[in-house]
Prior knowledge:
By secondary structure, this protein is an alpha/beta fold. It is 33% helix and 17% strand.
Amino acid sequence: xxxxxxxxxxxxxxxxxxxxxxxxxxxxxxxxxxxxxxxxxxxxxxxxxxxxxxxxxxxxxxxxxxxxxxxxxxxxxxxxxxxxxxxxxxxxxxxxxxxxxxxxxxxxxxxxxxxxxxxxxxxxxxxxxxxxxxxxxxxxxxxxxxxxxxxxxxxxxxxxxxxxxxxxxxxxxxxxxxxxxxxxxxxxxxxxxxxxxxxxxxxxxxxxxxxxxxxxxxxxxxxxxxxxxxxxxxxxxxxxxxxxxxxxxxxxxxxxxxxxxxxxxxxxxxxxxxxxxxxxxxxxxxxxxxxxxxxxxxxxxxxxxxxxxxxxxxxxxxxxxxxxxxxxxxxxxxxxxxxxxxxxxxxxxxxxxxxxxxxxxxxxxxxxxxxxxxxxxxxxxxxxxxxxxxxxxxxxxxxxxxxxxxxxxxxxxxxxxxxxxxxxx
Length: 425
């Protein structure tokens, strides 16, 4: 067998740094909350010629840093251009039954594509077949929010939600609006969602309760919003069978980022359709390239696709932008938590929205660079504050989520929970 030829690059080091970056206010969701900040782990892959590729993954703290360090025996000496070999080397399907490295593979893949782009002088989208658009539209990702430490930013009532959507539209130009639900009882969230839709005529809307509704409640909720300009109903209930039952009982297209997150589930959904739109997450699917492949399958079978957000700083946002640039069948605005951030760790600070869109980076690689000062600042902040329990609600310390849920937060409860007293944001 002849020797494999690659780029000539060789990996000589892999580093991980966990940071915590402030949010405007704590974001509430069906499983708990982001307690006023994101915890993200920045991955750097360095080659023998001094190039550094950037990756990013969610949370994890010291455990994520240790997990990345544990990949060194696999990665040292490897050619970062051989990303397909890397996929099987790190996440062989049977080995992954014992050690699921999907998100680790994603972060390493981002870095390897970044390296390959820098090595060739090409942006990542050129390595993936070339851009079909030079900017990606985003939805205003709306959350119910606890007040920030200074008392501002609360979103709890329909009026507060409408005001927040108007603010974001004025500031960023959003024309599509997504409400993250599953926090309050369905009646309160239905009232809030309808108020949101009526407040912005001509715009489009999405509601996502994170699969927390029973199928029967999901059907009732869907019937109650069928007259609105819905893009789709996202994860109203959990599971392919539950979503399939819902799909049989509503005219609204269904979307998911929880029950179609790999190719076997995608195949099952093609054979017995349960959702109409697959929300592709560059982390959940194990990288940008698997998402491009999945989008191709969706194109073949005429399923919709959109770009999903699992919470991002600028490096992962860049991965989402390059994905959005190359997928011809991207017919929906992407999701992003990004506008909730107060800062970023990339040179130049936060990327800017223009008319609800963000331009696709065109510099070599991912097109973003680390701001070393910011990286150090937010790494120190993480060491000071530590992690937070993503799947706990600071306002309900004895509560934990069930599927489906019948125990919701009280929308009459005002103020900032005592559990957030130690959080500065």
